[in-house]
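About this split. The held-out portion is used to measure sequence recovery: a designer receives only the structure tokens and must propose an amino acid at every position. Recovery is the fraction of positions where the proposal matches the reference. Here is one held-out target exactly as it appears in the evaluation file.
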């Protein structure tokens, strides 16, 4: 017994020594011996990585893998745009439910406070964030109560936001990235709580913070409380004040700031909705799933809720919720999030409630022969705008500078750049010289609608622009300024058009409260111009998972029975 005790002590001590030595060596270059994060040795950066990183607030981890994209049970529309294709998706984080009215209203209030619409130059920034509440109106329907109350009334605060265009959803994702990073820096003591300060604007942009933090907070650098690590103090220099900035500035290499939030790609959304993790056997799929949940029926089989629908959708003509006293799906419009059981990944309402925007530009064909790894159509590769002096160009935010706006085809006015943010421009030909992985900035129509995908591939660019377009979609209206009133007048495209498919057309996935059962299949897909909104399309965000494809211990390869 005594020998066993001694052996245990020796093993424990050895393990402790190994862990300590391993921990200490992690701050030293394995190949050169130079110390990381040490001001005596140049303060070279090596950030810390947590292999057991937790998902961002409100999100769940989606472990990546292979799946069959576009595989559906029915194709009664015979449009053949859901042809099965084998795809691989990387791991990512996804909102467990759609963005709600209260969450989006937080964004609207924040933007209103930072960019006061009472100032003429900010007037259109606030209005560009507002959902289109008029989407609830019907020519032959009494729905004004929803127009007036659905977005702002607390009775609907936990309902998914609708009336939001793809452009607005994309801007919300950018703001969420900045809001989360700002809160992180405040909580970790790197920045003062600017929400308690009334003398400065609380605009924060992650890219600006990493590029030149003196451009934030009206140039008031006293807001920054402390940096990373320590800096060497020369002999004879006075000790800095307690509240003075110490250490070095935070960089992306430190791993403190969160990855950006964005809309999911179509492949990511469909992979997450199908959740084949719950119907696999070893490395094979046991049958196909028609819905986000396991099973081929839309009604619950449990004794407590037998007969109730497992999603919120339209069950037939005039059948939005069932008979009075027996509400089979619990709602006649969008319902409170998490009202129905989650799928195998822990995601709610991937079938039903509201359809959801995804990032992709719509095309009838998904070209997995070109790429079967994290497929996405819509890449626009950009770079920071640099002036003649080599400085990064910012969208100025002073009283003497006008905000740059753009007018959408439906007349909505949106800012080209948020004041104070960094200006980005598409990459140029010189940036892609001798590259093999991509050859241009805008890849929305690559391989489908561009010059090389037609029989006129030998044309030069000017000749090709004079030929009929593959997708005869409406052109952007001409913007005219009335010489008398100064108002903007849009002259719409009056030529005969045959399709809505264009480089500004985005995919939306999933069925909604206003759709029939057919659209509940995650493999189905539809499209709409990115500047339009409806009363049945919402959205949720995703964020990239860094590091290994899985977190923590591996699960058993064979499913439990």
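Reference sequence for scoring:
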């Amino acid at each position: 017994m005594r020998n066993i005790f001694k052996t245990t002590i020796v093993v424990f001590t050895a393990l402790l020594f190994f862990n300590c030595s391993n921990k200490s060596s992690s701050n030293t270059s394995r190949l050169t011996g130079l110390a990381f994060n040490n001001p005596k040795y140049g303060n070279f950066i090596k950030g810390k990585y947590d292999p057991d990183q937790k998902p961002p607030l409100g999100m769940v981890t989606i472990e990546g893998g292979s799946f069959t994209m576009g595989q559906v049970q029915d194709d009664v529309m015979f449009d053949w745009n859901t042809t099965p294709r084998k795809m691989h998706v990387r791991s990512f984080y996804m909102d467990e439910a759609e963005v709600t009215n209260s969450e989006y209203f937080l964004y609207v209030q924040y933007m209103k406070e930072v960019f006061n619409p009472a100032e003429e130059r900010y007037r259109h920034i606030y209005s560009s964030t507002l959902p289109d509440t008029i989407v609830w109106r019907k020519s032959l329907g009494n729905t004004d109560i929803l127009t007036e109350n659905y977005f702002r009334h607390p009775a609907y605060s936990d309902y998914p936001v609708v009336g939001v265009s793809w452009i607005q959803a994309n801007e919300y994702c950018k703001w969420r990235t900045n809001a989360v990073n700002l809160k992180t820096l405040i909580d970790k003591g790197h920045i003062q709580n600017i929400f308690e300060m009334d003398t400065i604007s609380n605009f924060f942009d992650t890219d600006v913070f990493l590029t030149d933090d003196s451009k934030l907070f009206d140039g008031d650098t006293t807001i920054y409380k402390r940096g990373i690590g320590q800096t060497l103090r020369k002999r004879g220099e006075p000790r800095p004040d307690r509240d003075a900035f110490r250490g070095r500035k935070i960089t992306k290499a430190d791993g403190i700031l969160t990855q950006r939030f964005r809309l999911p790609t179509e492949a990511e959304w469909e992979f997450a909705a199908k959740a084949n993790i719950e119907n696999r056997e070893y490395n094979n799929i046991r049958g196909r799933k028609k819905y986000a949940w396991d099973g081929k029926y839309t009604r619950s089989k449990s004794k407590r809720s037998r007969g109730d629908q497992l999603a919120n959708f339209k069950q037939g003509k005039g059948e939005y919720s069932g008979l009075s006293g027996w509400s089979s799906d619990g709602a006649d419009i969008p319902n409170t999030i998490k009202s129905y059981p989650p799928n195998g990944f822990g995601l709610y309402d991937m079938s039903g409630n509201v359809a959801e925007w995804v990032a992709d530009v719509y095309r009838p064909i998904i070209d997995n022969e070109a790429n079967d790894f994290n497929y996405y159509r819509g890449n626009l590769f950009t770079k920071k705008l640099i002036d003649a002096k080599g400085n990064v160009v910012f969208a100025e935010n002073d009283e003497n500078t006008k905000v740059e706006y753009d007018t959408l085809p439906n007349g909505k006015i949106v800012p080209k750049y948020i004041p104070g943010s960094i200006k980005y421009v598409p990459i140029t030909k010189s940036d892609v010289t001798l590259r093999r992985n991509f050859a241009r900035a805008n890849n929305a129509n690559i391989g489908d609608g561009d010059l090389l995908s037609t029989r006129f591939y030998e044309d030069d660019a000017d000749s090709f622009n004079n030929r009929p377009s593959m997708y005869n979609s409406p052109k952007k209206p001409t913007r005219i300024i009335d010489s008398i009133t100064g108002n903007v007048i849009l002259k719409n495209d009056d030529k005969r058009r045959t399709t809505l498919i264009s480089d500004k057309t985005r995919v939306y996935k999933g069925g909604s409260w206003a759709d029939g059962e057919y659209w509940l299949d995650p493999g189905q897909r539809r499209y709409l111009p990115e500047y339009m909104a409806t009363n049945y399309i919402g959205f949720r965000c995703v964020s990239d998972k860094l590091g290994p494809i899985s977190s923590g211990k591996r699960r058993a390869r064979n499913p439990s029975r």
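Annotator remark: The longest helix spans residues 2-25.
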